[in-house]
Design brief:
2 copies of one chain form a homodimer.
Chain A (H helix, E strand, L loop, with lengths): L4 H19 L11 E2 L5 E3 L2 E2 H17 L4 H17 L10 E2 L5 E3 L5 H16 L3 H17 L17 E3 L1 H12 L6 H19 L10 E3 L8 H4 E2 L1 H17 L3 H18 L11 E2 L13 E2 H18 L2 H17 L11 E2 L5 E3 L11 H15 L2
Antiparallel strand pairs in A: 1-2, 3-4, 4-5, 6-7, 8-9, 10-11, 11-12
Helix pairs in contact in A: 1-13, 2-3, 2-4, 3-4, 4-5, 4-6, 6-7, 6-9, 9-10, 9-11, 10-11, 11-12, 11-13
Chain lengths: ~375, ~375
């Protein structure tokens, strides 16, 4: 596996990051364009807060972890300033999207804008400490914790009482966000949050019967035999497993480490398309037709997060199954997602591995999973002896 | 074209309708199961109000138009009774979905449950006149007209003022619903509504520059260069064109008839996949990557509504282009959507025409587009001399 170290590092630093540095800054209004075609040309100017915040995080993290390149820091600050000026409603909740100038377009109907904003301001505060950044990060984190039992708030369309589900996305993100926020939180706060989050991920959403993770369960943790309750997203589960591995290393929790690796591998076995290769986007755990029309598509982030999981698990344990799977997923990913004609990677393939949408960035794909994945794999490979 | 008359008629009466009669009634709780696998087995018991209402409409319409089969009437009443008992919130708005027993699951966050319910109760009232049916149909129709400027109500996630769009779906549905409701409405009411609806469809959403119909425009009718504003759905536009043809016949409006045929054919030319055949689900009018991951899939309703449009246009005008296109779309549709192994048709194909989801009914596919399409084509073919 280690032979790939330079491949991941160079792809990150010489291909992907320069693509975003060059094409995404909005020099007039601040913030970033993320709707970029195959060659980096802007085809839509809306600003999606998830992606604005994730890009702030990415450049702050690179400045912190790779090298103190002031251009990276300036780029991160450019996005943060735009979010400070335009990102929040009067309650401090981050909108879902803004127009090019920063006028709000879509209300804070879900909590993930807040999650990525908290992550962004915490990371930026680490490299450019500033009261405002720290305050926003902390206040937003508090908002998330307050909203976590009804994250959609007034935009929740579910009739109360009939079928109260909770979603895997929240504990899954919190398991990563809590560590990301560590520099700003009391140690006691972190210690009080982490075990609950691990419990939710590894004991509530992880179904004992199948060993797989469900996207939604009843509030009491039981299985809901409904479209939402039967939904699984292998990439989502595997991404959570590398968050669990990080926690297992920090807290020297070997059981958690073992369980996370077993769960990740089981999910990969389950989610792998035996006929055409690649990992499915969604599957119905009972084998019924999925509600999602895109269920059999192959998405970039699913594959990158899987490579992070496998390289991390291998670096920790030397597990041979992780090595075999890494090689298989690596081959598929580089063959199908990397664009030989232009920087950055494709995001959306059909079941057969053919490019479905020739974009490099859009409403959901920004400067995040490709560079974070490449960075993570690079760093994991460095740890292999 | 006329040689296909019996094919459509028999497929409707001997294949598709018996499938729903046999598999969908919930004899315990009332209403219909619509989540049916390839062989008609129920795989999910939730009840989606769009589909409940559409099935009521279908059986009432067949009883009215095909033959007074009391089993059909009873089946329609079974669905209507379930909706009367469980379908509405305290303001009389129809929920989006209910569980098997009728407990509400998802709030009335969009207006289309109301649209299909009004259509259902109006049709049922025609064949089984009853004050309650008539009242519900009328009251619901009034609700729709009241809600039409903000159809999502409190569930609207758009920030007011930045980019106020209106959606094609509403005038499009109203153009059909107004005729469906005719037996219950004053003639003056119909006459006051119809011109406005035709204007919206044919002059506001139909873009002069391209001759194509947009799914969303600014409230002042101008083009919005955004994901929503660039969105087109060829099947949706073509379906609306047969609604326009019906109106053109009723009001003896030859210009409308000509414009509807030209628009439908232009849309079909635009939406046809020249490489693999079939009609795309969504396209971006500027040729940018679609926001919709399912953009290049081939959906049953798109193809059936196109066959209705083409056969209707041909029956009215004898237009040769309609004949040519009918043959082409007919061949594609029967080859790919009809299931040779079990009744009813597949709904979801990938770009290449391969079945993507082996269901016969689900959250969005019920007893509606296949039987209505078969019925409509049959009746259009009867009119050809």
């Amino acid at each position: 596996m280690k032979q790939y170290l330079n491949l991941y590092k160079e792809e990150l630093l010489n291909n992907v990051i320069p693509f975003w540095e060059k094409n995404s800054p909005d020099k007039v209004n601040g913030g970033y364009f993320t709707c970029l075609d195959q060659f980096g040309k802007v085809y839509d100017t809306d600003k999606f807060v998830w992606l604005q915040a994730r890009q702030v995080w990415m450049f702050a993290m690179l400045y912190d972890q790779v090298k103190p390149n002031t251009e990276w820091l300036d780029l991160a600050k450019n996005g943060a300033d735009f979010l400070i000026k335009h990102g929040r409603d009067k309650n401090g909740a981050f909108y879902f999207s803004l127009d090019q100038k920063g006028n709000p377009l879509v209300q804070p109907y879900n909590i993930f804008s807040d999650c990525f904003a908290a992550m962004a301001f915490a990371a930026l505060n680490k490299v450019a400490p500033c009261e405002e950044y720290a305050e926003i990060a902390l206040k937003t984190f508090e908002n998330i914790l307050e909203r976590k039992d009804n994250p959609k708030g007034i935009y929740n369309k579910t009739f109360p009482g009939t079928r109260n589900l909770k979603s895997f996305a929240l504990p899954m993100i919190l398991s990563n966000l809590t560590l990301e926020m560590e520099s700003l939180l009391d140690e006691d706060k972190v210690k009080s949050l982490v075990p609950g989050v691990i419990h939710e991920v590894m004991e509530v959403f992880l179904q004992e019967e199948t060993g797989l993770i469900l996207e939604n369960v009843n509030v009491d943790g039981s299985f809901s035999d409904s479209y939402e309750g039967r939904l699984t997203s292998p990439g989502h589960a595997i991404e959570a497993m590398w968050f669990m591995l990080d926690l297992s290393q920090k807290y020297k929790d070997e059981d958690l480490c073992k369980k996370a690796i077993a769960t990740g591998l089981r999910t990969l076995e389950y989610g792998w398309d035996k006929e055409y290769g690649g990992i499915y986007y969604f599957l119905d755990i009972s084998g019924h037709p999925s509600e999602k029309l895109e269920w059999n598509q192959k998405l970039w982030w699913v594959h990158l997060e899987t490579l992070v999981f496998l390289s991390k698990a291998y670096a920790i344990t030397g597990n041979n199954e992780c090595l075999q799977w890494f090689n298989k997923v690596h081959d598929y990913t580089w063959k199908h997602f990397k664009d030989p004609d232009s920087p950055e990677w494709f995001g959306y393939l059909d079941r057969y591995g053919k490019v479905q949408l020739p974009l490099k960035g859009g409403k959901w794909k920004g400067c995040f999973h490709v560079p974070r994945g490449l960075y993570q794999v690079w760093k994991n490979l460095e740890k292999i002896k």
